[in-house]
Specification:
Chain lengths: 115, 114
């Protein structure tokens, strides 16, 4: 079965510093990978995805993610973190079971950007 | 939030009572999902649907049932609520085929079982 791992529970970063949120995955076949963000008391919002093509994917709010097939990783990055980036971030992978699509999520990373 | 409405948004219920949560979409997407979110567990899939009357179990389906009689509605029922089902429940939808657009999420339903 497909799965994702987000090894850190919380990531603390100073405002203006680079932000990285780590994700590794395990899939059979080609991976479809996603990042979502959740602000307090809200649903999940789509940030970006990797389906095929360039390994560096750009998404919303200045975020980007790098797909690395050899390391089976899909780390989320932002060059300069803002206090408003403080939120819960989820990595997800599409899995196909008996021809049907499902999304498997990691446990999430709490990002705290310190002013 | 991409035409997804969850109702109710908040509910407090007693142990042993049945509870039904509703997810309504206006996007005509084929796939609909129910997840629960708990601290330390992230999002876990309860059930999903790949068409009208076509549903399947997720990883935490025990104690839950679902129904989808129309494309736009996906109901999640707790037959006899337990305190372990206190959680935030999210509905999600996605397109047909490869699911390449990922999924769109509703605002969530906070359920408390006392």
């Amino acid at each position: 079965a497909q799965s994702v791992a987000q090894p850190e529970d919380q990531v603390n970063v100073a405002e203006g510093n680079p932000l990285t949120v780590k994700c590794t995955y395990s899939v059979s076949g080609n991976p479809y990978l996603f990042w979502y963000v959740q602000y307090p008391n809200r649903g999940l919002q789509f940030l970006l995805k990797y389906i095929t093509g360039d390994n560096l994917v750009k998404g919303s709010y200045g975020f980007e993610a790098e797909f690395n097939k050899s390391q089976t990783s899909f780390h989320l990055k932002k060059p300069s973190a803002l206090v408003s980036d403080s939120a819960l971030y989820f990595c997800a992978v599409r899995e196909v079971l008996y021809g049907n699509n499902r999304l498997a999520f990691g446990k999430g990373n709490q990002v705290v950007v310190i002013p | 939030d991409a035409g997804i409405t969850q109702s109710p948004r908040h509910k407090v219920t007693e142990t042993g009572t049945p509870v039904t949560l509703r997810c309504h979409q206006t996007e005509n997407h084929r796939y609909m999902y129910w997840y629960r979110q708990d601290p330390g567990h992230g999002l876990r899939l309860i059930h999903y649907s790949y068409g009208v009357k076509d549903t399947d179990k997720g990883e935490v389906s025990d104690g839950y049932s679902v129904s989808r009689s129309k494309t736009e509605d996906f109901l999640l029922t707790l037959e006899s609520a337990t305190s372990s089902q206190t959680s935030v429940y999210f509905c999600a939808i996605s397109d047909t085929g490869t699911g390449a657009l990922g999924a769109f999420f509703g605002q969530g339903t906070r359920l408390t079982v006392v």
